[in-house]
Amino acid sequence: MVREIHVDQIVSTVEGLCIKAANILPQDVMEALRRSLEREESPMGKNIINLLIENAQVASTEGVPICQDTGVTVVFVELGQDLHIVGGNLYDAINEGVRRGYINGYLRKSVVSDPIFDRKNTGDNTPAVIYTDVVPGDRLKITVLPKGAGSENMGAVKMLIPADGPQGIKSFVVETVKVAGSNPCPPIIIGVGVGGTMEKAALLSKRALLRKVGEPHPDPKIANLEREILEEVNKLGIGPQGLGGRVTAMAVHIELWPTHIACMPVAVTLQCHAARHAEAVL
How many CA atoms lie within 13 A of 22 on its CB side? Predict the structure, then answer.
């Protein structure tokens, strides 16, 4: 039997998720920051992490954004194949929710309609960047991930070849973080996508940011590679906010997809310490 859901419920849910994501840092991120505080040896680095934790606590208590850059609104949707959406279009409903969330939540509107010439602000942070997966069942899962420009600007994609192997991936990720320096507001979370095609790898690297911070990949070989990359990144000495220290990154998350025999595309998405996201299931 097909279940129905009205677009008005989607609109109100997305509105709330936009505000929640901007104001409340998820518990796993807060715990990762506290673990970073224990590992950091630099007095300056410890002080910075303490300030980041305090900032997140104030934002949650006062109901204000963790960061002034409330980002491009990236929305991941899991649409149950037995669910029927009535009263309008799914994407229109999501964008209306984003519009209301950014206006009613007093969040900074940062989206421009023409990325090359006029660069005129749309005034409501729409359109969102939406990715949809059709899945079994009759539920709708919506995850909102605001992506600020400071970290987004430092992402990178490289078309490696199979012969580059794990070492090639490791070298590329570490070099990407080294070039980024303080720009993505460390301590960061590093999302890595490997496989598929160029654009699929980039999407995988973004999805990797939704994993609980520090949760290892279920494949032991990939989990070990994540640990190795994290160790190398933290040897760079960039440290919290780029002012030196042991903790440049809190976690490395790798996601994979099958690819062509001649390819090994790798994408890196860097996420600042304010790893904001919120989700709901309808």
Answer: 29
